[in-house]
Amino acid sequence: MDPQGRGSLADLSMDLQGDSKVLGLWSLASIFYMWDIWNQLYYIH
Hints:
Elements: H1 3-44
């Protein structure tokens, strides 16, 4: 693995994840939650 090749990308990823990781996890959780609800509604009907 080449640290120089991944340096800028890793730094950018860390900067983005620092603020948006929580929002990303919340969005994914809400999407799966809503998807589960829709599946249950379709199975009931």
